[in-house]
């Protein structure tokens, strides 16, 4: 019986310490226009790896100083073990961001990218940044994903 309890505890610890295939964190400042509160990344196939299309969706609160008229986003993807980006993605901020209420106090985020090939570890960090046409920072997110636990 004691052996069963010990093995069960080890299994619980292993499950809670297992690396999730996706996590995120804000790398922005208090001056950012968009504050993300929820973010997820999925693939239509449910499988993660080279060449699969990943869709990132999220939502959050706004701190706008004026209407967003135009802008761009970019995401540089780095792989653990390499010192340079393995892939850079860019897009139109107006297509990625939708305001969810008429006073523009909340927003939704939705963009796609093709997952890069794994060269060393299969663990990636995507640095997602967005700015308007006046180069004002709208948001900064770090997306962490891997191919080993998906």
Describe this structure as you would to a colleague.
- The chain is mainly beta.
- It is 13% helix and 49% strand.
- It has two helices and nine strands.
- It has helices spanning 2-17, 93-96; strands spanning 22-26, 34-42, 53-62, 71-79, 85-92, 97-99, 106-114, 123-132, 137-146.
- The strands form two sheets. It has a five-stranded antiparallel sheet with strand order 1-9-8-4-5. Strands 2-3-7-6 form a four-stranded antiparallel sheet.
- A hairpin with a 4-residue loop joins strand 8 (123-132) and strand 9.
- The longest helix is centred in the first third of the chain and has 16 residues, at 2-17.
- The relative contact order is 0.27.
- The model is unreliable at 2-19 (pLDDT under 50).
Top keywords for this entry?
150 residues; four-stranded antiparallel sheet; single chain; disordered N terminus; five-stranded antiparallel sheet; elongated; 49% strand; mainly beta
């Amino acid at each position: 019986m004691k052996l069963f309890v010990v093995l069960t505890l080890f299994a619980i610890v292993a499950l809670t310490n297992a690396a999730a295939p996706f996590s995120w964190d804000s790398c922005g400042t208090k001056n950012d226009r968009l504050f993300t509160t929820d973010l997820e990344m999925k693939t239509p196939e449910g499988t993660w790896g080279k060449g699969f299309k990943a869709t990132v969706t999220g939502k959050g609160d706004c701190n706008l100083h004026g209407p967003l008229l135009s802008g761009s986003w970019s995401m540089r993807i780095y792989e653990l073990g390499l010192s340079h980006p393995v892939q850079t993605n860019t897009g139109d901020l107006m297509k990625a961001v939708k305001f969810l209420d008429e006073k523009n106090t909340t927003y939704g985020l939705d963009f796609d990218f093709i997952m890069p090939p794994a060269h060393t570890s299969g663990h990636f960090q995507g640095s997602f940044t967005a700015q308007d046409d006046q180069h004002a920072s709208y948001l900064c997110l770090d997306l962490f994903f891997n191919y080993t636990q998906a």
